[in-house]
Amino acid sequence: MEGLFDHRPLSFWAVLIFYTLLLAGLSFYFTRFIKTSEDFFRASQQTPWWVSGLSFFMTAFSAAVFVGRASFAYRFGGLALLSVAVTLPTFMLGYWLFSKKWHRTGCATAVEFINKRFGAGVARFFIFTGVPIRILDNANRLYVTAVLVSLLFNCGLFYGVLITAVLAVLYTIMGGFLAMSVTDVIQALVMSIIVLVIAGLGYVAVGGFGGFMGQASPEFWSLSPDHPEYDVTFELCTGLVAIFSWNGFWSLVQRFVSVPTERDAQKVALTGGISFVLLFPLFTLPPMFASVLIPGLDTPALAETSYLRLAETLLPSSLLGLLCFAIFAATITSLNSELTVISQVIINDALKKRLRNVTEKSKLLLGRALILVTTVLCIVVAMNIRSFGGSFHYLILLMGMTTLPTFVPLIMGLLWPRTSGAGAVASFVIGLGTSIVLRFGFGQTISVMVAANFVATLGTFFACGWLLPVRGGKKAEVEALFVRLRTPRISDASAEEAGSHSGMRTLNLFRICGACMLLMTAGLLFCALGDLSTHATAIWVTLGLFLVSGVLLWFGSTIAKKLMPVPMAATGIASTPQSEPLPSTTSS
Description:
The chain is mainly alpha-helical. 76% of the residues lie in helices and 0% in strands.
């Protein structure tokens, strides 16, 4: 991997540096609108659905797609395409069921819901178990981005991790939730264009699908390749895990509850699902083409570079810089989301009573300090991921062991009222214990581990619901909560009240995104003058960015008010419909 990007021309570095500084400036710009901790953590529930929807999609992946997932697609093309199909039920359930349920809870975080549903003690239990799991997951995000950074700057892995971590912390502590959501939108638009270009160029280079099918080996397309872990059962298990992770991850739940209305929450899930269906195959195809165009990357570590090696072959220098920036920034914003929600959970849930009399300014300072501490812990773990067999294997093993025990009780707690807090804790302990015993005690495959894990966790949850149901005063609280969960919410009076004291209503995000895209396009045009004269691809990408900028600015100047449930025009004047009376629920 070292030396892959050696001796790149000035246009490569100019695009990379200019775009990085632009997003840093955007994050700094949003600091002026942060008035309260609610602004910092979820934009006082004033985020437009299209922003949260694209942020939902971008939060769920990182450079792991271009590194770890690329390694898998390079070696197992048939299974890589199957993985896209098995994830579709995740977004269908998110749209029809979970997005509405999460918004109806009226909770700022998933842990706050656990507190209401199962009790304060259970909420603390899932904080103490959930935060370490999120640190392990985000360490992988750091690692895969560090692979790119070490490749760019020809430095060691430690310095790559350190550079990534420092930039992630700076982005996060400045602009908060809304800044990273807007950054996600810009990243989604830029990445869509550049990934489409790479997939198209790879398609032409490999001779179309006919040429590709003729050159790829039969083993490449096999759904039962010669591998002890990866087969159809493995993909079905990853699809099962995806249902609970995409609809239960703390940072993704934050997207459902940060919008003003229940209908907006459904649009968040729909936007994320459509983005996945349209874009994820484009992420998958280039490393598959690389298996023919760049053969010989036989080890997982070498295969992790397949996407970048193909891009280096096909793209002019300016667009290669744009791709590297997009990959890097995607992980930074994904890390931002996770770091923010971990800090939010600790402050708003774990330390809520102790911080009752603390000023908003002190809460903001503490939240930023917690982000720094969490990042240091992620660095320590990231330095050891290679010893687990690389990014993809580490992530699949971690997700397979921890996702279902963590999120089955959470998701089922939205749907079934009988199980008590003790049952939720028992489900986690038995599910995780089953994974540990099967994997490390009996050496079972990931598929067997996940399937047994799911049966054990779900079975324990239902068994405890019948044998040890919710009783006493807590039963009345849970019944009131489920009345709320069954009642559609037209609008949220509490969100309107919070928004009235927020700095977020003064923002027109169409204009902000459009202006940023226009600056990025102008920067690309200036930095890529040499490429424009020799590469038609650079011209088409520049025109595409100009088109997107124009559309965003047009929306911002003409019909933004009509599309946004809570107007964010510069006047800050908003009118909202009256909400229907909602059943109240007693706080536990």
